[in-house]
Design a protein that fits this description.
By secondary structure, this protein is mostly helical. The protein contains two helices and no strands. Helix content is 83%, strand content 0%. The chain is rod-shaped.
Length: 99
């Protein structure tokens, strides 16, 4: 008889990894937003540093959203897998009774 098998630790590890990535992305975005560009001196350079921080801040925010979405998807995959495992177990029990 076969049974679906996937270690819960795989899902937990993936969720932990993606959750921490999302948190780190948000921390980086906040740091960039708080950057004091005036420290570089030259006005054009200040503007360039601010533009860079804005662009990276936006990109980091998007990455954070995607990693958060990945955590949701991992949860859904785990739930679906658990449901399939239960269905398989029930069908194997029914098959055994039918013999």
């Amino acid at each position: 008889m076969s049974d679906l098998r996937l270690e819960d630790t795989v899902f937990e590890h993936l969720k932990k990894t993606f959750s921490s990535m999302s948190d780190r992305m948000e921390d980086a975005r906040r740091s960039l937003r708080g950057t004091d560009a005036s420290a570089v001196g030259e006005s054009q350079l200040i503007e360039d540093v601010q533009d860079f921080a804005d662009d990276w801040g936006y990109g980091i925010k998007q990455l954070g959203k995607h990693t958060h979405g990945a955590v949701k998807m991992i949860n859904k995959i785990g739930q679906t897998f658990d449901g399939l495992d239960l269905e398989l177990a029930e069908s194997l029990k029914a098959k055994k009774k039918g013999k």
